[in-house]
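User: I'm putting together notes for a lab meeting next week and I want to include a structural view of one of the chains we've been expressing. I don't have a solved structure, so I'd like a prediction I can at least talk through. The sequence is below, exactly as it appears in our construct file.
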Amino acid sequence: MAKTLSPKDTHILSLLSLPHPVHPPTHNPNPSYPSPNPNQPPPAPSHLTTHEASILAPLNHPSPPPSALHTAITHLNNLISSHPSHASAYNNRAQANRMLHGDDLRSEAVQKAHIWADLTQAIALAEGEEEEDERRQKVLSAAYTQRAWMVYKLARCCCDRASSTEENGDAQTGVLPAELQGSDSASLEEWASRDFEKGGRYGNGVAREMAKATNPYAKLCGAIVGEVLRREMGGDGELGG
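Assistant: Thanks for the context. Below is the predicted structure for the 241-residue chain, given as structure tokens.
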């Protein structure tokens, strides 16, 4: 059985660290961009990090209002339109949409927000970068962990999905990403475990622990060891040897 998350770990996974962690500034770090403004020309590439940080600053508390999330998503849409190869913007847009719509990949709202596509695109762009810098690692850590968490939650809900499918045909599975359609709970958990492992490899500690908890080979070995111990310490009370 998969490891049960503590409330703290659940919170960490729900509100993952942004690729560019920001705090509400006490002064304007760049007078060229006092605040995100849809009417402003897009920033030059050298200013992307500062501009993105100003977009994300209003979200830097546990429960940003929906209006702030909608505004941030609009600005991230503009940023992506201007700089379509900027990996962290896709990850941040996915995270903002997760905070707004939740994590259920069966949800129509989640599907329409293209959260899965954004995370997959962030991973593809960041993995395609040649320079191994901290920014790239943070994007990959966050994107892999967010995607893993969504697949893990889907695996946990697989039985409910099967019941819904019996009642509603293929309506539920039809909105899933193509890569996941037709997968059973075990296959989904294996996918999640692989993504957790990659998220952990790039620096996310919770993802590293979840990778261990969901690893199918580790669980198999644990089951085998548990069975051996039950036999050795079984009903007759005799120890082996």
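A couple of points you could mention at the meeting. The mean pLDDT is 75. Residues 140 and 230 are 42 Å apart (CA to CA).

User: Perfect, that's what I needed.
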